[in-house]
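Response regulator structure dump, as promised
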Amino acid sequence: MYKVMIVDDEMLARVGIKSLIPWEENGFVVVKEAENGKKAYEWIMENSVDIVITDIKMPVMNGIELISQVGERKPDVKFLVLSSFDDFEYVREALKSGAEDYFIKLQMNPEQLLGQLAKVAEKLESEREQKQQTSQTGTVRSQELALVREKLLKDLIYGWIHSESEYRRRMKEAELEFPDGQVVSIVFQTGGMEIYERYRDDEIHLLNYAIVNILNEMTHDQQAYPVSVHPKEFVILSYCRPGLDYAMSLEQAGHLADSIKAALKQYLNFTVSMAISEPVPSLLEAKQSYRQAMEALGLSYAFPGGSTIYYREIKTLGGSTEAADIAKEMRKLEHFLNRYEDNQVYRTLGSIRQLLMNLHGHSLDTFKMYSAPVAYLLSSSRGGDDSGWMDQQLKQMDKWTVKSDVIQWLEQVQEEWMDGMSEDTDSSRLILSAKRYIRKNYASSLTLEAVAEYLQLSPSYFSNLFKKETGQNFIDYATNLRIEQSKILLRTTEMKVYEIGRTVGYENEHYFSRVFKKVVGCSPLHYKSDNTL
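structure tokens r here:
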């Protein structure tokens, strides 16, 4: 239905026009009447209307003024004007202002009115189709441009652009500026236990989409270009403002890294460590910058979670083969801990201890930097109080005087961990398996019976065991998990509410909204629109 408004200072004229034709049978509906241009204008600014039939001569604001003022704010609204025999100059002015056509009041008949309305409706439809086509073309162009930019940034990072001319040509094709100034790489990765516990493998692409959106938002008004190099690895190539010295350039990059970390924590509720390279002369040397940042990130295990690691601080350590080997084993340790593969954890701990025993020519502080994260990972895997535990270990590290103290400490930590794992009851191990199963399958029609069958337990026994070990019942645990995932999608994607509901395991949109409101305190739409929640 096309929405029509009638504007005339004579009530009988408005009634006559409204009763002239069967509006709805012909695809039109009269949504509003007004007695002068001012009232009509105020209503149009607050409401939706397609066609306005207006008299020319009216008090307060005449038809020509109405057409002109509405045209400035809502140019899509179409006007048909009413006139008398002596209004020709006014009619001409109205047509110049944008009116589609005019009627002589005393000669208007149903056929004439329907004919003019049909002609205007056809024009409206044509304009809408053209707008939609233009919008689709613009969307396709935006998508193509995003791919061109992504390819360019990856080629720069991998060192596949060698000449200044190719660099400038590709930057122009990608519609990116190439300002003067040095460049640094800021790198981070998503992974580890925090991510593994919250996202299934088939959800990682949603997480990446959300992260890229946040990065684009954080850098859109800066000379910085983010790109997802791998599914779990992100790089921001950031220009340093001209005139900044070495220290100030790194400080600028550090501020950007801190703001991105804060945004990731606020919107996605996880913490990442970031690494920053030394400044390089231009984007053409992004490969060197990227390698430096990745080398620094490889030692992130030696720093508290959420740290910013500068290549300048670790470059005296990172070049050795031993450092690379230890970093590799540390990543394996985290991987196996995430998956509760106890035998592999034990073997990897032995490898790390052996590598540290063979490490020569480094200070005691270096041994602390390499060894402390082992204990940190082990503590995290057991679900302890990480900050308190680390404070206790740092005090113990202050007592170290020789390398053998480090090795002995590691042996002790390893033994304590193995003792703790052996003391785990069958019940707690079962619940860990249940939680992993729930996190992998919450988007499907997950039931208590299905989890119990997976664990080869009776539903009633599993229900009581789950409540005993976790302090909450199965339904509450699964519901809270689903709602937390839906909150992330509401904040970071353009998915519809019903789509998000289905993604997290609710086929019925109304039921999903009811559960969401019960848990969060507001509807999904309210949560999506309110940035303070």
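The first strand starts at residue 2 and ends at 7.
lmk if u need the other ones
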